[in-house]
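Inputs:
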Amino acid sequence: MSAAHEFEVSRRGVLVVGASAAAAAAAAPAAAQGQGAEPPVIAKVSLEVNGKRRALELDTRTTLLDALREHLHLTGSKKGCDHGQCGACTVIVDGRRINACLTLAVMHEGAKVTTIEGLGQPGALHPMQAAFVKHDGFQCGYCTPGQICSAVAVLNEIKAGVPSHVSGDITAAPQVSVDELRERMSGNICRCGAYSNIVEAITEVAGRTA
Amino acid sequence: MKFDTPATTNPIDKLKVVGQPTDRIEGPLKVSGTAAYAYERHDVEPKAAYGYVVGAEIAKGRVGSMDLSRAKSAPGVITIVTAQNAGPLGKGNYNTAKLLGGPQIDHYHQALALVVAETFEQARAAAHLVEITYVGEAGEFDLAKAKDGSKPKPINGSPPDSKVGDFASAFAAAPVQVDATYTTPDHAHAMMEPHATIAAWRGDELVLWTSNQMIDWSRGDLAKTLGIPKEKVRLNSQFVGGGFGGKLFIRADAVLAALGARAARRPVKVALQRPLMINNTTHRPATIQRVRLGAARDGTLTAIAHESWSGDLPGGKPDSAVHQTRMLYAAANRMTATRLAVLDLPESNAMRAPGEATGHMALEVAMDELAEKLGMDPVELRIRNDTQVVPDGASEQGSAPKRPFSQRQLVECLRTGADRFGWSARNPRPGQTRDGQWLVGMGMAAAYRGAPTTKSAARVRLDTTGVVIVETDMTDIGTGSYTIIGQTAAEMMGVPLASVRVRLGDSLFPVSAGSGGQWGAASSTAGVFAACVKLREAVAQKLGFDPEKTTFADGQVRSGNRSAPLAQAARAGELVAEDQIEFGDLSKTYQHSTFGAHYVEVGVDPFTAEVRIRRMLAVCAAGRILNPKAARSQVIGAMTMGAGSALMEDLIVDKRVGFFINHDLASYEVPVHADIPHQEVIFLDETDPTTSPMKAKGVGELGICGVSAAVANAIYNASGVRVRDYPITLDKLLASMPLRA
Amino acid sequence: MRAFSYERARTPQDASIAVARTPEAKFIAGGTNLLDLMKLEIERPRHLIDVNGLGFDKIETTQDGGLRIGALVRNTDLAAHERVRRDYGVLSRALVSGASGQLRNKATTAGNLLQRTRCPYFYDPAQPCNKREPGSGCGALQGINRQHAVIGASQACIATHPSDMAVAMRVLDATVETLAPDGKTRSIPIADFHRLPGDTPHLETNLAHGELITAVTLPRPIGGAQIYRKVRDRASYAFALVSVAAIVQPDGSGRVAFGGVAHKPWRVEAAEPAMSRGAKAVSERAFTGAKATEQNAFKLPLAERTLAAVLAEARA
């Protein structure tokens, strides 16, 4: 280990000045190309969240997830990664589950959004919520709202005939099976590892609603 | 309460509430999105400003220059915290690298600045306008290279090396030998809730709503870092979205939120950005492990050696991968060695079952290799070498070598598991079993993890309506603390669980064991037990009963032929009792440990070498199981994490730059639903009166020990390919699996 | 993420012109890839034109019995469409093997074609990447490249294209329909749509700035066993190490395209006459000139073996 290997890099990792500079070629860092900080653009958007009309004025950059969590204080939808890689932010928009972190709030004018809070509350839990409690389909609870929103939507997707990667005959109507549930739920990561219990919870609800 | 003699019969033994598979008491809050985690405390700080962390973009060196002008003038920016303007900062006892870097940079993505703005969007945009130049230095990022310069380092307070008998001679003389080297990569905790904090100053007092496993450690470390008295810091972690050891300590979010709030003169909230987290926070270190086993032809081990190398930043700690090898199998001649290399990667630190998780990945595969060489069943090999005394006594704080295990049901775990899993159907010849297309194999491993206990306090209140309220700074990181603490109080006070409220995770409450090292369940409930004993005395006294002869059941307090409703004792005013459990020398007299056996069946695709786990079973002997439902979840979760270590988890080091390149949840792959089959867990009946009045141990870490090895052994049995370099991805199998037409 | 102005396009022509007018404008449809990259400032638009309202969300039968898929048809809907499942099974299979249910509900047909690479050096703005910052170098070439291209790469870039859908589109001989700012439409065969990296890895497709994808058309169905096999490190929700999209006819002839191996879906038509002779014969020709690194060399045998699995499945 020697300090002779000194080099300089800019914040963008491209500007190289130092003595024994590494291989990267010199280029102006993007951040230094004179774009300062543009003022935020504010836009109006109106959403129907859990049956209630909510009018918001938002920075256009606001994701649906941050609109829910930071503006409407509906923090049941979780921010696990903010990049569509974990599923903790799953909500149901116009009947479909999506990652709320990867969509802009302003793109959902008039949309009907169902969050975990809208599915049910303590004392009046949605059957899927109750089944998660019964089967201990969670531990730390952070991925749980996303898992439950996803699970509710998954059963509807199967009913609607949407195929999955594990559907045997892609032309046939998919059935509820543990393999189907596992594949379809795979966009919801649970690091506590409650998967086995989650599948049992969903299976029970599927049986009940079948 | 001092616990220094084995427990006799006590109110917990009624098992009316304790030991029942009760649903989690906080479950309805979690499934309805109403459990508020650190970043979500709009209820306490609705007007917090937003912080966004700027991380170092080199692995080692220093900041050449930092230009904040454009960021500062960006819309909405309130302040920017850097090492230059933060004032003098200390470093916490539990941190190796500084949480705010600069000018010196210790690792990639070490925090260099916090940009605080009115909105999250503004803070994030302005953070990209901070311009930093770096003066880089060469660093060491390659464990295999740095290994040669590594030094002995103690593990868990034990000496780095242990020796019994004469390993070298015995190994040389052994008719059957295994000498193999295994490597495990760096692992990320990847808990679902990022490290997050809201900080607010109330005068000279600092309040943090944060996500933390160890409230009192972190309270102290935060005070030390900021140079303020510990009494001036309050921490609250009422819900913690997973930790696995990654939240044992304060991290940059806590320190930077506190500094940001001071500079902004208003509350500030910070969540570490996921793409920053992996290099910014801690990880389980990679290991290189050499295991040598020598055995007689009947399978009796005569020589065991386990050497482990890992790396960390200067001042850091080694992985204690050799630990279970000092405990699991008898053999007259043995040695272990632990070496630590200096690496300039991000900080290595504890992750679920630190040491044993990696150690079993080597030892328990070596045992499988030995069984094959012996032509012996791997289960029988392990049974043959069972011991009821610590075989490597020299390693345990100088106590006598013949120290007994208080309970050791390893053989029962192995036999029960073999029976329930259908192990006898396994073909010991690898690569022979097909199910349709799939090559199918079974593997198993033994599991060992210590059962430490540590001081833990609680306060219990009986309010005027007869509700029992428990307060302790214990955390529930998904482990079930809320529920088992509630069950303990309900059992002790003779009330239904519904009459108990549990308040956790606040430094206003008595200091508990906290969540770590598998000590939380046994210790924290024992602390609640102690406080309840005091409350029972207070109740008896209030009712004029003889405390010695008073019983608590069904909401009634009885003494002789007198009885009164429990609530009556508090009618004139709330009764409060506080106590702590302190553990005496029983853990020196006895070795407290948990044992288990893992059985796994896998399929390997003969074309692509993709591996799919088909079945998993764990059998655990871990003292009294306080809540079989929550305990089972702990174990299946650990099995899932172990499956990840076996098959996919791998923080990949770019050894030129010195960082983990796969620093998000798309590229650091952890198991998803489709990777995990139905999992079975069996708890053996066990109570251990020497561990605590609860007679309990822990299971959360036992569950991960050995799983990965069982998967690896199953892959070998299915495919005939032995991979000693984790994770066992298909590229490592493919070359040795000729395509059979 | 830089501040940006946002408008909902009223007509396709307006949208195209609006983007063409400013070099820093972008279309947004599903947004699942664009917003991900905007958060990291890898994409830095100052103006977004939301094209979701343009009505390109229909799937129609073409005159020759093929299928015209609107650019905005969501991955879920495309995979679930009755005709796609019946006549273009490889496409349905490819779609459902990609991403997650949530992402497929948002992601669009056009957006899927325009997905950017998952190379970790591209994703880390502190690292050199010629695709992100032309001229800054390639971090992967001498770095970590297990996931990277084994064929068609250059000294400037060895990234792969991450799409599954595009691989199926390639084997189906799809055509990309576009509208240019000047009102002209054109049809780009999928083979000519994506580019190899060469010296300009930042140019990933042959679309002009402001050119809007309106639809993807599929020729009449050709029957056969249609199989998409994706191989990855975990069982779901992961990008391909290697994937194979194949259409195998009863007589053993057929077509095949590979994913996860190149900067674009990889199909060598000249290799396809060898289909009836088996995976080895096809792979040898399809990967002529391949150049693997030590870390990704396994992709070549893996591609061949995955194709062997596919052919075995087709026979069964």
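The radius of gyration of chain C is 19 Å. Flag for discussion at group meeting.
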